[in-house]
Amino acid sequence: IQNSLEFTISDISDAAPYLQEGGSVILISSITGFNPRGNLAMYAVTKTALFGLTKVNLQYMVWNRLHSGIC
């Protein structure tokens, strides 16, 4: 779990200085983040965390006239 989220945060941080006004960051998640199942618990946790990361990231991105979204 830690590596999955750390790599995502690192990638966003590395890319942010190169994004021009109107640029976008799109994170790919899964329906499992909305509707977790017991047999996919760890996977569901990482996908749910991406939703939270997108919300936090959006605050920074809007300030810098960029876009953030999740698919």
**Main beta sheet strand tally, sense and closure:** 2 strands, parallel
What class would the helix/strand composition place it in?
A: mainly alpha
SSE ordering: HEHE
Distance between the termini: 19 Å
Shape category: elongated
Alpha plus pi helix count: 2
Radius of gyration: 13 Å
Mean pLDDT: 80
Percent helix = 40-55%
How many E-type strands? Answer: 2
Low-confidence stretches are none
Strand order of the largest sheet: 1-2
How big a fraction of the residues is strand? Answer: 5-15%
In short:
Helix content is 52%, strand content 11%. The chain has helices at residues 2-15, 41-63, and strands at 24-27, 67-70.
How does this structure look, described?
With 71 residues, the chain is mostly helical. The chain has helices at residues 2-15, 41-63; strands spanning 24-27, 67-70. The protein has a two-stranded parallel ribbon with strand order 1-2. Helix 2 links the parallel strand 1 (24-27) and strand 2 (67-70).
List keywords for this structure.
two-stranded parallel ribbon, elongated, mainly alpha, 2 helices, about 70 residues
Summarize the helices and strands and which ones pair or pack.
Elements (H helix, E strand, L loop, with lengths): L1 H14 L8 E4 L13 H23 L3 E4 L1
Parallel strand pairs: 1-2
